[in-house]
Specification:
The chain has about 260 residues and is an alpha/beta fold. It has eleven helices and seven strands. β4, α7 and β5 form a beta-alpha-beta unit.
């Protein structure tokens, strides 16, 4: 979760939004799809814009052979010390850094995977940012980039404003951004189709009422039964639309994903 949202709430009280929980499973499935050996071989994942590290903590449980390097410019020195101590105590293979250069210098081998999960919409010049990442010493032509972003500018709402998003994407605009940055597309698509209608209704309502832009998913109030139901619906949504996508049919969703590598 974005650190902006993480500062609003105590997760032990409010729990995690089912969208966030479902997205973790989507990421795992995409990783296994494109890196079949991820559960049997040691690999290194670099999570850029990692937020509060919850996602990679969950990934480390699901992918026990994988080591993780987490980077977020919003980390303070106190946060770095607290995370480092917590991961060391739990013997969790996660290291945290405030800058990409520091993270790259710590890696004995290049990163096999770069995660940019709902990150580049926060960057004013997304193309320049992607080029900068590729210039890092830890990135090679074999490195896979897994990128997720919010979809459709017409669905831009108060939540986007709160999170300081510059834009939302379509498959085409996301592909244009990555190709202009000298990345080649391996796969692209949408996910969470079932969330399109609720977001569309939200946008319509915001035109008539003053929206509350001071809340993110960090304000979610936990309800285990409801949360598990929503998570299950979202995962079924992804599995069905991903299968249909493999048949050559594109179904829109509230989020985009793209998998790419450096063009050579």
């Amino acid at each position: 979760m974005d650190l902006t949202e993480a500062q609003l709430t105590d997760y032990q009280v409010t729990g995690r939004h089912p969208w966030e929980l479902a997205r973790i499973e989507v990421v795992v499935q995409l990783l296994k799809e494109h890196i079949p050996t991820i559960t049997t071989q040691k690999i290194t994942i670099l999570d850029v814009g990692c937020g509060d590290t919850y996602l990679i903590e969950q990934l480390s449980k699901k992918l026990p052979l994988t080591s993780f390097v987490a980077v977020d410019t919003a980390f303070t020195e106190q946060m770095l010390e607290e995370y480092t101590a917590r991961f060391a105590k739990a013997n969790t293979p996660i290291r945290v850094f405030q800058s990409l250069d520091d993270a790259a210098a710590s890696l004995p081998v290049p990163a096999d995977v770069v995660l940019l999960l709902d990150v580049i919409e926060h960057i004013s010049d997304d193309v320049a940012f992607l080029r900068y990442l590729q210039s890092s010493s830890c990135i090679t032509p074999n490195t896979h980039f897994f990128i997720t972003v919010p979809a459709f500018q017409s669905l831009f709402c108060a939540h986007d404003v709160f999170l300081k998003h510059y834009r939302r994407y379509t498959n085409d605009s996301l592909q244009k951004a990555v190709t202009q940055s000298n990345l080649r597309v391996v796969e692209k698509g949408y996910f969470f189709t079932s969330l399109l209608l609720p977001r569309f209704i939200q946008v319509l309502l915001e035109k008539k009422t003053k929206p509350d832009s001071a809340k993110g998913i960090g304000a979610w109030q936990e309800n285990p039964v409801k949360d598990n139901l929503i998570k299950g619906v979202l995962l079924m949504d992804f599995k069905i639309t991903y299968l249909i996508k493999k048949l050559g049919i594109t179904i829109p969703g509230l989020s985009n994903f793209i998998v790419c590598k450096k063009a050579v």
